[in-house]
Amino acid sequence: QVQLVESGGGLVQDGGSLRLSCAASRFTFSNYYMSWYRQAPGKQRELVAGITSAGSTNYADSVKGRFTISRDNAKNMVYLQMNSLKPEDTAVYYCNLRSANAWGQGTQVTVSS
After folding, report:
1. Where are the beta strands (DSSP E) in 1-113?
2. In what order do the strands lie in the sheet with 67-72?
3. Residue 69 · residue 59 · CB < 8 Å
4. pLDDT at res. 68
5. What's phi and psi for 15, nearest 5 deg?
6. pLDDT for the residue numbered 37
7. pLDDT at residue 83, rounded to an integer
8. How far apart are CA 56 and CA 50, in angstroms?
9. 46 confidence band (pLDDT: 50, 70, 90)
10. CA 54 to CA 65: how far, in whole Å?
11. What are the phi and psi torsion angles at 46 (to 5°)?
12. Are 7 and 78 a contacting pair, CB within 8 Å?
């Protein structure tokens, strides 16, 4: 069964940075599109960023120029570098394997103003 484990969340001030990590296992990681989603209180879960097996990326308009998704296929890891964080980025962030509809447990990111 697919396993995704997120880490790296925390509390940061407005304008700060965080790097999220997702450790993937029990599937051939290098073959698949991976993505990060987030869900804020009272809101629907939304796509933040995605990366193909070849390294092509896509981003939500709200995070373009501030967030960077990357992957290390040798380590079965996907990352989300978040810079210039804003209070509206506060949410639980989830790693996702779309092809299996698999989710991690989530990691909380809180940006204080």
Report:
1. 3-7, 10-13, 18-25, 34-39, 46-51, 57-59, 67-72, 77-82, 91-97, 102-103, 107-112
2. 3-7, 18-25, 77-82, 67-72
3. yes
4. 98
5. 90, -5
6. 98
7. 98
8. 8
9. very high
10. 21
11. -130, 150
12. no
